[in-house]
Amino acid sequence: MTRTRVIYDPIRYGFAVGRVRVLETRLLSRATFERLLDAHTFDQMRRILADTVYGGYLEMAHTAEGVERGLDAALADLYDDFLEHANLPRPLIDYFRTRHDFENLTAYLKAEALDTPAEELLNRFGSVPAEAFAGPRERLPERVRDAERRVRAAVEKADGSLDPDAVEDAVDTELFTALGEIARESGSDFLARLFRLEADIGNVRAFVRARARMVPVAEVERRFVPGGSIALPRLVSIYRLPPAEAALRLGSHGAFAGVDAAAIADPARFDVEAARLVARVVRTSRMTAMGPEPVVGYVMERQAEVRALRTLLVGSLAGVPADRLRERIRCVV
Amino acid sequence: MNDVILGMSGLEWAYLGAAFAAIGGGIGSAIGITSISNTATGIVAEDAEKFGKVLPLAAMPGTQGIYGFITALLVFIFFGFFGGEAELTAAEGLRVFYSCLPVTFLCLVSGIYQGATAVGAAGMVARRDEDAGKALIFPALVETYAVFSLIVTILMLLFVQG
Q: Which residues, including other chains, have CB under 8 Å from residue B121's CB and lie 6 or more apart?
């Protein structure tokens, strides 16, 4: 396998990696983020961004809605222009698109459960147009269709209506099952490793948040998703331990080795540490000359960049102090 | 001439050697160039000004195919294939075949790996224009061994001819 990678990886990923090598140079630098943080007004921020790839997207943005629209367009272009037009193997594209399909599925099912319109809650980053969720189920990808059937069965109440509180956890379980399948289909060790890390982070995040709100074991169990390197029964048994010991146990696990136990016990600090763990994987992926790693790394960096810009720009419009914003985007900067 | 080795005459062994050299070098170059060309196309798709800087990298694995072609041509020239007066004993033909093996295998392997090295070098050029010169050095180092194989093959052919 390793021997043939030297021949097949350039054929599968060569074009995309070539594009990535140039596009990486257009990612926002640390200095740009510092300038954005030092800017006093939203207009100053927009002027700084005018010379970057985001200039065109934010040209007409004057409100939080405008920023959201502009950054959504930037993300949509990342998927439509880059991912779909880089001759990439389908599983790699699906790894990113599928989670948006499942976000739409959550929104659609929740809207149905609460008897509200779903249109405004749907995003346009999935593998099928958002409108497909309102139409006949045949228009949905098979994976999503099957997942919807299972989720409905799991969250249906006695009167036939859906339990809105259970939808998210049930869809998350299906999402991670689907992502695990996609990672396996891709045949990429890197994607499989990344998926395991994401599943571990998702589970420990659910663990930490449930802990903080003293959620009972029976309820927290359904919030865990499959595919992580920490077995679910083990997570449940750790959940039963006293907080300090539970944090120590989780901190001793491979993916979280070296993470401060106190950070694992604190939901806010855990989010920062989790972002740092993912950032470390992404940084390493940039050092790989050929394969899916640089492509996945680039897409994740752009996603993080868009998230950071959203926080900065919307935060600035809402009058959030620069120090708070700096703290929020610390992992990207 | 009735003498044969493994059912093949001297001329047939020499033909086989020439064919192997051309095929091995050709495959190495084809794979190597495909590797780097895919990446180079991606780079140029995003930044057309990089074309001139990645072109030498894309062309570099092409030399292995040329070495294979030269080897085949030398076999034909040295042993009189063009004049129709080629005459080789089975032992001589087998020696010609052996002489072609360094180019066959080294050009096949080095072509593929030179392409892989050039991909990394193209990444350097994509990031920093000023590194274009340095980027050429690393794939060029792989070339050394393809050149050595050609020299060894030519010397061996000369010994057989002499």
A: B57, B135, B136, B138, B139
Name the DSSP letter for residue A28.
P
ipTM score of the complex? Answer: 0.85
The reply to whether B162 touches chain A by the CB within 8 Å rule is no
Residue with tokens 């057989």: B160
Which one of A13, A22, A83 would you mutate to disrupt binding with B, by most B Cβ within 10 Å of its Cβ? Answer: A22
**All structural domains of chain B:** 10-161 (1.20.120.610)
CB A106 within 8 A of CB A174: no
Q: Does B121 touch chain A (CB under 8 A)?
A: no
- Cβ contact A239:A246 at 8 Å: yes
pLDDT in tens, A140-170: 989 999 999 999 998 888 887 888 888 888 8
- Kindly state the tokens that stand for A110: 């929740």
Burial class (CB in 10 A: 0-12, 13-18, 19+), B53: buried
Chain A residue numbers with beta carbons less than 8 Å from the beta carbon of B45 are 15, 18-19
